[in-house]
TrEMBL record:
Keyword Transcription in annotation: yes
Protein encoded by which gene: hrcA
Residues annotated as domain Heat-inducible transcription repressor HrcA C-terminal: 108-344
Tagged with keyword Transcription regulation: yes
Protein name per UniProt: Heat-inducible transcription repressor HrcA
Gene Ontology terms, MF aspect: DNA binding
Source species, domain of life: Bacteria
InterPro entries associated with the record: GAF-like_dom_sf, HrcA, HrcA_C, WH-like_DNA-bd_sf, WH_DNA-bd_sf, WHTH_transcript_rep_HrcA_IDD
GO BP: any one term: negative regulation of DNA-templated transcription
Amino acid sequence: MQVQLTNRQQQILGATIRHYIATAEPVGSKALVEEYNLGVSSATIRNVMGVLEKVGLLYQPHTSAGRVPSDSGYRIYVDQLITPSETLARDVELSLQKRLKWEDWSLEALLQGAAHILATLSGCITLITMPQTATAVLRHLQLVQVETGRVMLIVVTDGYETHSALMDLAQASEDSQPDAEVIDRELQIVSNFLNTHLRGRSITELANLKWSELDQEFQRYGEFLKNSVAELARRTLTPSATQIMVRGVAEVLRQPEFSELQQVQMLIHLLEEEQDQLWRLIFEEQPEAEEVGKPRVMIRIGAENPLEPIRTCSLISSTYRRGSVSLGSVGVLGPTRLNYESAIAVVTAASDYLSEAFSYFNPQ
């Protein structure tokens, strides 16, 4: 929304939104005069608030009430009038570092712990997606002969998830068919070769490798590897759209915005039964937020959210990464009347922390 505001209009809009965030009560000019050093009279504030209402940034829920921010007003506030709290971001990162030990914890325990801490610090519902298999990094690969002519490819990722594919091995001529012990030795040599060349690469890269690098004597395994990797990709590269850690629901539902039972039921149903929709919203669309000139977090306010149960909420999210590859997302969800400076800082600090953690998990 393109609205050019004067400095005075910006000051009064910002003060109105801050007061409403703190009180959840419609804001009148008297409250702004008493609590904010705006340097103007109550009459001037009323006139400015009237102008802000005409351009759609404020509205009156009742004729005799004060004003409350619209979604467009919050958007101007977030884009032009605030700076995320650097102090809080440092505090969040220190808290995560102090209370979470990625050296000793499993991947799932690490994310659960992070989600709990963020929910406590932000006062919002925290959403953290599990890392996507498509971007998981290879830790170990092993080829195992399970019976004559049948070989299993086993892949262990950096998250210690195991995936396997069982395929038929191409038959050599009957006269030159090696016995089982020879195949076992060759499979171990090929496994060593592949681990040397592939450790630290994502599963998506495996499907695009040039198997011609294998020594000529091991070419019999080339077609098998192509087929088994294709099968592995088919099974594992489908996004794990329902794996989202959710924390902090009870506290958020105490907010006055969630006083209607039907609204609460819709939100709970979304969080529990339709996580695939949330996943697409906070992860698949995340790259749009990282185009040049846009913030590193995705901020969706009110009606900007396409999902009906959260069209009265704000969703702030950011990806955590390994290098340049997005692994998952961290998000906070709350009423549009939330402390955006704090929420943005919390999400940013958490995504930075998890990115650092996953660089640790990256096999060397």
